[in-house]
Specification:
Oligomer: single chain
Structural class: alpha/beta
Shape: globular
Distance between the termini: 29 Å
CATH topology of the largest domain: Glutathione S-transferase Yfyf (Class Pi), Chain A, domain 2
Largest sheet: 4 strands, mixed
Strand order of the largest sheet: 2-1-5-6
Helix content: 40-55%
Strand content: 5-15%
Radius of gyration: 17 Å
Length: 217
């Protein structure tokens, strides 16, 4: 059986959301980051020998499916969709390439700056400081070009691959989610904001999100 290692308060949301969209049978084994171990006493950590035997990098998430072990969240999500997701996964060579393109776009052009915004805005003292405001300003500036690209694309396409929701949308939406705490940034790109809201209104996302909220912070 497909097994996903990780906790919901991590990048494991990406494969977990994908698996829920697929409605495939899978096992979820909670594994918490070592620096957060006190939040979930008794749960396997990324430094436990049992987990290190699966991923010596001590990072989550990890997927195990038979003899296959995958250790990168966006690769795991794409694999699940391709293997188990039917129309959620790419159906042609062109769609395979486009899915990979959007996943790499999310990882290289979106995630780092979006995380800077989240980390800063969720720290009350830092976000109120001049330093914190400068960090958010710089990160927002870096995000505007990829957001502009998304805006142009989504003005004429309901989803990233065109007419249907796919794992490409999951990959980009989960990286962009980190910037949602910014009070005005996404409002500058209405097609992107509407698309992200549609992604997050899906029942599988809502189920994943409720599970995330139920985990200790």
């Amino acid at each position: 059986m497909l097994t996903i290692y990780g906790v919901y308060r991590s990048r494991a949301t990406r494969p977990l959301w994908t698996a829920l969209e697929c409605a495939c049978d899978f096992s979820h084994v909670p594994v918490i980051q070592i620096y957060r171990a006190d939040a979930m006493p008794g749960v396997m950590t990324t430094k436990d020998p049992e987990f290190l035997a699966i991923n010596p990098l001590a990072q989550i998430p990890v997927l195990v499916d038979g003899d296959l072990v995958l250790t990168e969240s966006l690769a795991i999500a794409q694999y699940i969709a391709h293997r188990y997701g039917g129309a959620l996964g790419p159906q042609t060579e062109a769609e395979i390439a486009l899915t990979q393109q959007w996943a790499l776009f999310a990882a290289t052009a979106v995630e780092a700056s979006a995380l800077e915004i989240q980390y800063t805005l969720t720290d009350a003292a830092k976000s109120a400081s001049a330093e914190g405001q400068a960090i958010v300003q710089v990160a927002s500036h870096k995000l505007r070009p990829p957001l502009a690209r998304l805006q142009v694309h989504l003005e004429t396409h309901p989803w990233l691959l065109g007419q249907r929701f796919t794992v490409a949308d999951i990959c980009v939406a989960e990286c962009l989610r980190y910037a949602q705490g910014h009070p005005t940034l996404l409002g500058e790109y209405p097609a992107v904001k509407s698309w992200l809201e549609r992604c997050q209104a899906r029942p599988a996302f809502q189920k994943m999100w409720q599970a995330r909220l139920a985990e200790p912070a």
